[in-house]
Design a protein that fits this description.
Largest sheet of chain A: 5 strands, antiparallel
Structural class of chain A: alpha+beta
Oligomer: homotetramer
Order of helices and strands of chain A: EEEEHEEEEEHHEEHEHEHEEEEEEEH
Strand content of chain A: 25-35%
Number of strands of chain A: 20
Radius of gyration of chain A: 22 Å
Shape of chain A: globular
CATH class of chain A: Alpha Beta
CATH architecture of chain A: 4-Layer Sandwich
Strand order of the largest sheet of chain A: 1-2-3-8-5
Helix content of chain A: 10-25%
Number of domains of chain A: 1
Distance between the termini of chain A: 31 Å
């Protein structure tokens, strides 16, 4: 089965090369009757866009998404939900097709790369796999493809919002700069205005300085994106192969440049004792509904863990407690320094990169981590509908 | 789609509760004409078995696998490959069904647990998901289910062996004891005789001592299993959602008690610079065939990396270089100490565990990591057959 | 993707050769909490069994199904539904594994066929596909494999029964003998006692006489199985590729010896005018609940068609009206007459069939048509759970 | 799993409503390196277009397909196959995205239908399924959606052409006019110029006259499309659930207005004896390569059937002989006569259809039957690549 489809019941299929006519995708399985704010989708897309932070590349495609099907103007249907806001559309239950035209693609920048395998890039392996390759901007191996995931994730997020579920990612490490504030103390207001997308101002400033320094050295730097999910639905995740942790891990390692995933205690768990790691279960409460504006919250009794080492799942199934996990990203492979490499004839050459590139990918990876998380959760939300009679 | 099937073209579907009549599975998609050594499958299963190392639990189910279909005695077919060894069978291209009868299941041990949610176990979340649960030995949430994965993986391994591919996992950390030998210097002879399955004798001894100490304290301890794949086929992995890294990550986080996955440089990549992380590509050679016994090796020219940070893939596709990755496991949740928890009515109770349990899961996780790796690779090996004209 | 799995959410995977150790399967996706009568499953299996009608072959395997997982004794769980009958079990939401041991397999009967391609059988094409073949009893191409479908269908039927849905197939043609009674006038009491499984006694007698005559001539004869579904759930079927009609057609043509499928007006529609074919929609009532024993019926207003040409779907989606369709079966390929054919070396030979064989397959195809129908409907019943918010 | 994806390895996912912004789709799994003639795709699309025959509706959308990804100009890649014709492109192995903008959609024509369920249409059942519906032109239930299938099928056809495989459908019945020429005597030159797409001129003329008469009566008429596949690859089809016959049946019943499918002897088989139906296997020859222009043909020895009752498969697997099957279509539901029906409140109303509609769908169904056939065969061609070692 080809690898351009994600999800089982809420599924996204994408297409598009970096310098082709357009990128796009189809979201299939979104239930009928969901009121969608399409402007919010564009807003999420804008967060991923190069140039969306002061620290990224200068390329500004605009990335305007055009929706082609699957939604309808409420004025055209018989039974309109009462509270449809101006400008909203409603899902028909049919596939939602969308495209993003490519613009501002200076393909000429890449002519020199037609016969060269860039170190750390997928050029070599695509040739090994397909025997043919679109070298312009990396073709489909370009992270530009993730724009389609953000569109799919933004729709998924609006489905999750009906459960009260909130998915929030953030940068927790850039190079040797590590966010030390415990997750429970983090505040996310204004995160999208922060150039690093780190929720602690002091750490963010150090990270930004490091990124600028690395850029000035013609180098790049890695990092970690963490993600927290609040008001998780209970019972999500299939217990054997498609554990919620497993599907999240697969989703995250499917993001360009990702090298690692951990949930809850993660790799620290290897050094722990069971008596320390096990969270005692206690009688507590979980929030099922909450409105900060309206100032209310609804709670129900629930078993809660005395620590957060599990990361929100037990046996691969969500407990309803906050979920948190982290994704490690390698430094971007394109750097402004000469590098030794080989060409398609295996002759050794020296590569001098041109063009515009990010010195650090993690600020722009934040919306992508969120999008993939939303896709996984929306899929499991629907799957859970058939788990019981 | 239910979560008991793994893989797209080479696919394993499993069933079975820990204390039901039997476990079993169906391996579908194994190509016709593969000569199989079924005794080798049983041998792999024996490595996973409780009691297979001196450090595990005393439960000894035997775990005899019975094959029910999909293979045939070479004497019964018209065109026998010449070199079929005595006792081998040949695949028919039809699904390979198998079962493992449950034995030695002291279900009575678990009566007290019917109404209790054990900390760190899946009891709570299964009830949240299904509203019903087989509490005996954890039902299907028991790691006993992984026996079926080992069977499937052992068949997959024999398919991979035709490409010369060798999958080798080992314990690289137990608690605070970490294997310091670089992967390229490791030797794996006799690994299955080592009680910890750590390829360095001195480290293994320290790990074994730690496990015994933890056991004597009524506690448990976590660890890390690393895995190396040699003579990897080139070009495996779908480039977007089903990257080889992504499918491996999903496979590994689908193993009970796994909390993290990293490939190549993994989480260390976050602190690295691009100039350090990028492996220069060089003209080199890769081994395509090798026989230590016959004393020969066949090589072909290939682009090779100057470092191993990528872990064997670029852009999610295998380069043909050695692949290596690591999986973090939490300490087993069952410990011989009283723990606070709640029952099904959310009343707080104290749990005193009985029965036989592993103080450390990683030695027995080694064959499971290998099995899941073999399943992923066999699946992608077949998928790659349709990538090109 | 291998072809031994049927369904998306309610899915059956089967294995087994006719003369191997066992047949079996895994039913995955059956919701948790379903009370199952396993004796009823065996009863359905008995209807498919050779020897279940006076007109079939003499082979009597017994076909005892053994369930291995996925269900639990109500006494072992905390929340038992009140009305669980003695002997019932409850589904756990985990995969239901089952096997049927092969018995009474006189493999020796087939020795002569190892090198011969029987006319009308799959011997030739299996060799073309796989290059290897289990010739004993046709291996996996034997209709014996359908026993597993009957098990899966019997579980699906018990899920459908909760909606009040009743699936009833019957023989409507044997050779030139055609059932002329309109479907709405058919009565199905005692159908399983009728040797032909035809609901009209006079027609059944003529069919039985024809079958006996054909048998005495060493020949075989084809037929048609019709199927009616009453109290259909509304809204089942995906509107484009996976129309309910399409999935039923695929299910039916997947039964051995099936050559055609039609729904509602079927091939007669080709000769009709729209003014005749279109059913006017009228305001009417549909039965949502009914008990003949208790003597009550619950109805609700519904749009109903003035004719039955649609067969119960419009645009591939069920309207809730009775569904009816028909499946054509060719005469069994094995006959007691010498036939010209070729062997594996393409040399022409004369085949003289031995062994025990059915002169007409349709009476035994009735439970298989029902089973496949139940599998399709149960799958779509679950799929429909995610169609709307 | 949502129902807008067709195929396993060669897979088409489509989107689009009749009067939305655009229709489109993604072809995923087409192997890399296939030289494609995109003009030929447009040509196939033109055959499906309303107005493509003198007998269809007057609506002429143009239906220009725009390809957005997955193919590349040969000038841009390193290894060009030698014989690439001017204007051709090469597949990259990545998904092929395409769109067809909607034009000439007089949505106003449909205002009166917002609250009415048209008899014989899917209006009622879509509301039952989704609770919401795009009434304009039938939304996604419109046959306009099949344009995307024709695009996918046209790509599949070019993959099949490399095997020499030729898929040819034609009209064999309109109302009571039935084509009587045996398939082996049919000649297909100029078929696309015939307004009925019937390969016999005399029959075509009678069919055309019937269609015109039916149109003048404000009525519509049904028909049958037959399909023949020559130079079939051997061994295609999975033996149990995904038999080639089964996948074709599912594909055909997934076409709008289809009511029946039969392969080979079809429903006639029900009245036949085994001694008549079985084709004796004989030693013969099959054409593996052929060029009428160059005047040569390559043959190889093969077992061939003495009759064509099987339709080209045995046990669900292709024998390599010509495949033939037929699809019954009901008369179009929209007719120019008043019809009784109900509205969304179940009140009875009289419907007077407006707009432009086909009196007979089968001439335009011919390219759709071909497209679905090509999709099924291309998928199984790729699946067969993993059947053997």
């Amino acid at each position: 089965m080809p690898g351009n489809t994600f999800g089982q019941l809420f599924r996204l299929t994408t297409f598009g090369e970096s310098h082709g006519a357009a990128l796009g995708g189809i979201i299939d399985g979104c239930p009928a009757g969901l009121v969608l704010d399409l402007a919010a989708v564009q807003e999420e897309l804008d967060r991923r866009r190069p140039g969306s932070t002061a620290l990224g590349t200068a390329r500004t495609e605009g990335d305007r998404v055009e929706f082609l099907s699957g939604v309808i103007d409420p004025a055209l249907v018989n039974d309109v939900p009462e509270l449809v806001e101006e400008g909203s559309v409603i899902t028909l239950g049919t596939p939602i097709g969308f495209i993003l035209r490519n613009q501002d693609a200076r393909s000429g920048d890449y002519d020199a790369l037609k016969k060269i395998y860039r170190p750390g890039h997928a050029d070599l392996t695509w040739d090994l796999k397909y025997g043919i390759r679109d070298h312009r901007g990396g073709g489909r191996s370009s992270a530009r493809e993730t724009a389609c995931r953000v569109v799919g994730g933004a729709i998924a997020r609006q489905l999750l919002a009906r459960e009260g579920t909130v998915v929030q990612a953030y940068v927790s490490q850039v190079g040797e700069e590590v966010l030390q504030v415990p997750p429970s103390e983090l505040r996310f207001e204004g995160l999208w205005l922060d150039p690093v997308r780190c929720p602690d101002a002091a750490t963010s400033a150090r990270m930004a300085a490091l990124i600028e320094q690395v850029r000035s050295e013609g180098d790049s730097v890695g990092g970690v994106v963490s993600c927290m999910v609040r008001r998780m639905p209970q019972g999500l995740g299939e217990p054997v192969f498609s554990k919620l942790d497993a599907d999240l891990a697969g989703a995250m390692l499917g993001i360009n440049a990702a090298k690692g995933f951990e949930i809850g205690s993660g790799f620290r768990a290897a050094a722990m004792r069971g008596s320390e790691h096990n969270g005692a279960l206690e009688m507590g409460y979980r929030i099922t509904e909450e409105s900060e504006e309206a100032g209310y919250r609804v709670e129900e009794p629930a078993a809660v863990s005395s620590n957060d080492h599990s990361g929100g799942t037990l046996g691969g199934i969500s407990s309803g407690e906050d979920m948190h996990f982290a994704v490690a990203f390698k430094p971007p492979a394109t750097i402004a320094r000469p590098q030794r490499t080989v060409d398609v004839d295996l002759m050794e050459v020296t590569l001098e990169a041109k063009g515009r590139h990010d010195p650090c990918v993690v600020p722009r990876a934040v919306p992508i981590v969120e999008a993939m998380t939303c896709l996984v959760l929306a899929d499991h939300l629907l799957r859970q509908r058939t788990a019981r009679l």
